[in-house]
Amino acid sequence: MSILFLTTFFRTISAPSNPKLIEGDSLFNQNKFQEAFTIYNNILEENRQFSPKMLLKMAFIKENEGDFTNTLYYLNLYYLFKADKKVLDKMMDLASDNELKGYKFTDAEFFYAFFQANLYYVFGGVLATFLFLLVLIIKNKINKRDVLIPSIFLTSFIALFFFTINFGLDSHKGIITNDNTFLMDEPSAGANLVEKVGKGHRVEILSKNDIWYEILWDKEKVYIRENNLALIN
């Protein structure tokens, strides 16, 4: 996660209501689910303003259609904005019912989701801490007191904060979207087949090589074509 992402996020949740989103919600409330989903999907693909509730509605529509893969995809996206245990339980139930791998959520993932869901409070606390240390340094300097210790605290705090948001909270996941998906031992169509898998499994993404993603599958590094994977974040 980067500063650019955080800026985009704040813009997304603080922007004025999207007329298209209002139209989609109106259609959803009239039980015109297909029409509503088309609008929601356009909003999501165009990276325009949307609400976490929109993602829940998209998951609801897809679940009613029996599309568990996209249901899990939208629930995963929602979980990034709201560290909601009920949604987490729902995902794990769906994964269990369909014998899907990759849905054992770790404490680190919960922390990541919680961080995302409470960005305003986190940044408020960070700003307050930064100002407190800065004022303390200035006050000590004016009174000719030692500023070394508060300066060390301030420098360490800033370094830890920027490391955390740029590296420490970085998490890349994807959901396999197609049945009969080939997992290869190298990023090439001519490589050896490791396994042929179905859709719905959630995997950790390690890197990207042209049209191939390097992922972890059963603790083994394998490669999957990008058109077989929906990125969660």
Features:
233 residues, alpha+beta, Serine Threonine Protein Phosphatase 5, Tetratricopeptide repeat, SH3 type barrels, 3 domains, five-stranded antiparallel sheet, two-stranded antiparallel sheet, 9 helices, 7 strands, 15% strand, disordered N terminus
Structure description:
With 233 residues, the protein is an alpha+beta fold. The protein has three domains: 3-99, Alpha Horseshoe (Serine Threonine Protein Phosphatase 5, Tetratricopeptide repeat), CATH 1.25.40; 118-168; 173-231, SH3 Domains (SH3 type barrels). 57% of the residues lie in helices and 15% in strands. The chain contains nine helices and seven strands; from the N terminus they run H-H-H-H-H-H-H-H-H-E-E-E-E-E-E-E. It has helices at 3-14, 19-29, 33-45, 52-64, 68-81, 85-97, 107-117, 119-142, 148-168, and strands at 173-176, 181-184, 193-197, 202-209, 212-217, 220-225, 229-231. The strands form two sheets. It has a five-stranded antiparallel beta sheet with strand order 6-5-4-1-7. A hairpin with a 2-residue loop joins strand 4 and strand 5. Helix 3 (33-45) packs across helix 4 (52-64), helix 5 (68-81) packs antiparallel against helix 6 (85-97) and helix 8 (119-142) packs antiparallel against helix 9. The longest helix is centred in the middle third of the chain and has 24 residues, at 119-142. Mean pLDDT is 84; it is low at 1-16.
